[in-house]
Design a protein that fits this description.
By secondary structure, the chain is mainly beta. Helices cover about 10% and strands about 25% of the residues. The protein has a six-stranded mixed sheet with strand order 1-6-5-4-3-2, with no helix packed on it.
Length: about 100
């Protein structure tokens, strides 16, 4: 991944997306095994297309960023966490990723 594919989390929301305002708190909770109510996730992200760095199977876990509503499309915004502390976000359902640094 090139440098343009990384963003440093800091003051505010570098993505200017209201769904990501609490991303830092969400990542903290997920890393502690606390999946917020309505958030789908925790499944292994297999990285079949090798869009992320190659790691052993089970290294990456995938999550929705916003709680799901029964009967409503989950959308394409997803979060992938790596066992080594990596945080990746995708707005197109795993097509392209940005690595989020500082979370």
């Amino acid at each position: 991944m090139g440098m343009r594919d990384r963003v440093i989390w800091g003051e505010g929301n570098p993505f200017s997306d209201p769904r990501l305002v609490g991303l830092d708190e969400l990542v903290k909770n997920l890393r502690q095994g606390r999946i917020p109510p309505g958030v789908t996730g925790g499944s292994i992200f297999a990285n079949h297309d090798l869009t992320l760095p190659m790691k052993i199977h089970g290294h990456y876990r995938e999550y929705d960023v916003v709680p799901t509503v029964k009967g409503v499309d989950r959308g394409k915004l997803r979060l992938v966490l790596g066992a080594g502390g990596e945080v990746y976000i995708t707005g197109d359902h795993y097509g392209k990723f940005r690595r989020v640094l500082g979370l």
